[in-house]
From TrEMBL, chain A:
InterPro entries: AAA+_ATPase, ABC_transporter-like_ATP-bd, ABC_transporter-like_CS, P-loop_NTPase. One of its GO terms (molecular function) is ATP hydrolysis activity. This is ABC transporter. Pfam families: ABC_tran (PF00005). Keywords: ATP-binding, Nucleotide-binding. Residues 2-232 form the ABC transporter domain.
Length: 242, 352
């Protein structure tokens, strides 16, 4: 289970998160929606131990992401919004390197590399240098590097940005398979149809505030809108954010 | 930076070479101990002639002190010994000898001293001696007190000097640029920081890899210098190895500091280049330190190459053992440790 308690993050005068309280159940795909600059990436960065909150705390399986950061890092996987790969290494070398960072070695590492390459459909291109990959292949390898440690909790930060429909569909299937294997997924996106299709529950945040959370049906009930996009625009407004 | 870097380099090099091109008052004076064992009229005349040379800082000392200054303390590149019987030989119209004790590690200074002594002897002959006594009557006998080989070539200065400079380019610019690429372009730092490894392990691993690469690069350059140009490697290969390791480590550490002080890859490149050129000029990579003004020589150990060049000269040219260079070796490693600690303290693993 993932929980946050009164999570606040300030960057100087700017308050990126204003006391977020969330609870994500085990095995759920939890969607985090919000306009640009809403605080989605900041929330994932805090939960993954990448940045410290100004106040409040996050808990994964009851362990604080501040006090037990190293333990938490062992059970989570992170797929950052930016492609985070060594462009001069091959796909397999990237996986080998990041696998070793999690203490996976030898046969275990070899087996996991084969598994994740198969999972993301890059087995045939594993020996190619990453800079020669297409955008979609890089996205898939980015995902593969995030699950090389077989995490129990996976944070996906806009994993389908800039990819073609085929790659997006492939990533959706990957996420569904991971859920089937029992992985809890925190998924941020701008695309409402992704959230509608994949997520068991959804939270909408805007300007650092959590403004709605629940299942799709729960979110839509009692409103005059019929889809998530309309609800999103109703809650967050139509003004440009960047 | 495009203007600041050349201005800074021109300024440092201008000051460094001021002793050669500067006003008369700025000329570098060569410290030259002199032992007068003769204490007679001709030796006194020779001393007077030598004193007329404004480029020499002549000081009469005892015989043992001359050895100490050249051989043990390396404070003087050479010392003149005017032997007993110098004047008598002249009066008897026999050939007479001037001995010069030398430290070949200070090759250029030694050459200058020898030429000054030669010139003074000629002057003395013209002024004092009967015409039938020619220059062939004056013998200048050199005694190499420290060098493990007699003739030091320019490669003995240039191989270590330029190796240090190029290692700094590889380590310092390469390291800091790699840091920016990984943090801001490849974003791999982000992935490393969410893995269960400490920040010190991440930075330490990168530092170790760069240090090993730099060390191998430098070993290859020294091997090339040995086989192609017959440079001396000295008597202590372990000392040489530790010095090379220290150079690679310190250069990488300075790379961490440069990366910490820079806001972008381009800034790191400019700051790195500036640092390397100034360190090379001040630290004696391009020319022997003695040609620099005294005030600059005193500041030379503020930069890493000066410590390294002290080690290399003592080990490779003077043939000293590792124990003899421990103070310089300690300075080299301490320099790297201080740069690393400050660099790590200021280093930003992420930009918020």
């Amino acid at each position: 289970m993932i929980e946050t308690k009164d999570l606040v993050k300030k960057y100087g005068e700017i308050e990126a998160l204003k006391g977020i309280n969330l609870a994500i159940g085990k095995g759920e795909i939890f969607g985090l929606l919000g306009p640009n600059g809403a605080g989605k990436t900041t929330l994932i960065s805090i939960l993954s131990g990448y940045i410290r909150p100004t106040s409040g705390d996050g808990f994964i399986e009851g362990r604080s992401v501040i006090a037990s950061k190293e333990e938490v890092k062992k059970i989570i996987g992170v797929v950052p919004q930016e492609i985070s790969l060594y462009s001069s290494l091959t796909g397999e070398e990237n996986l080998k390197f990041f696998g070793r960072m999690y203490g996976v070695n030898g046969r275990e590492l070899k087996s996991r590399i084969e598994g994740v390459l198969d999972f993301v459909g890059l087995k045939e291109r594993k020996d190619d240098i990453v800079k020669n990959y297409s955008g979609g292949m890089k996205r898939r390898l980015n995902l593969a590097c995030g699950i090389i440690n077989a995490p129990k909790y996976l944070f996906l930060d806009e994993p389908t940005v800039g990819v073609d429909p085929q790659t997006r569909e492939h990533i959706f299937k990957n996420v569904e398979l991971l859920k089937y294997e029992g992985v809890t997924v925190l998924y941020t996106t701008h695309y409402m149809e992704e959230a509608e299709r994949l997520c068991d529950r959804i939270a909408i945040i805007d300007e650092g505030n959590l403004i709605a959370q629940g299942s799709l049906d729960e979110l839509l009930s009692g409103t005059d809108v019929t889809d998530l996009e309309a609800l999103f625009l109703k809650l967050t407004g139509k003004e440009l954010r960047d | 930076m495009m203007v600041a870097v050349p201005i800074a380099v021109i300024t440092v090099i201008g000051f460094a070479l001021g002793g050669i091109y500067g006003k008369s008052g700025d000329f570098v004076k060569i410290f030259l101990p002199l032992v007068d064992l003769d204490k007679d009229s001709l030796s006194k005349s020779l001393i007077e002639v030598l004193k007329e040379n404004k480029s020499l800082d002549l000081k009469e000392v005892e015989y043992e002190k001359a050895y100490q200054l050249v051989r043990d303390e390396n404070k003087a590149a050479g010392a003149i010994i005017i032997p007993k019987g110098f004047t008598t030989s002249y009066l008897d119209r026999k050939p007479f000898t001037v001995r010069i004790l030398t430290d070949p590690a200070k090759g250029m200074e030694v050459m200058t001293i020898k030429s000054f002594v030669n010139a003074s002897a000629i002057k003395l002959l013209i002024k004092s001696l009967p015409p039938q006594l020619g220059l062939s009557q004056v013998e200048i006998k050199e005694e190499n007190l420290t060098g493990i080989k007699g003739n030091i070539s320019s490669f003995d200065q240039n191989v270590p000097g330029f190796s240090i400079m190029f290692i700094m380019f590889g380590m310092l610019v390469g390291f800091s640029e790699a840091i920016f690429r990984e943090r801001d372009e490849d974003h791999t730092f982000q992935r490393l920081l969410v893995a269960p490894v400490s920040k010190s392990s991440i930075l330490g691993g990168k530092l170790l890899a760069r240090t090993v690469i730099g060390m191998v690069q430098m070993l290859v350059l020294f091997a090339f210098g040995y086989f192609a140009f017959d440079i001396s490697l000295g008597n202590s290969l372990s000392g040489l190895f530790l010095t090379i390791l220290g150079v690679a480590f310190s250069a990488s550490s300075i790379g961490v500091l440069v990366a910490s002080l820079s806001q972008s890859r381009e800034q790191a490149r400019s700051l790195g280049t500036l640092t390397i050129l100034i360190m090379s000029a001040m630290g004696g990579c391009w020319w022997p330190l003695f040609i620099e003004p005294k005030w600059m020589q005193k500041l030379s150990h503020l930069v890493m190459p000066a410590w390294a060049m002290d080690c290399f000269f003592d080990l490779m040219i003077r043939g000293k053992e590792i124990g003899d260079v421990l103070p310089f070796l300690g300075g080299l490693y301490l320099y790297g440790i201080i740069m690393l600690l400050v660099g790590v303290k200021l280093f930003k693993f992420r930009v918020e």
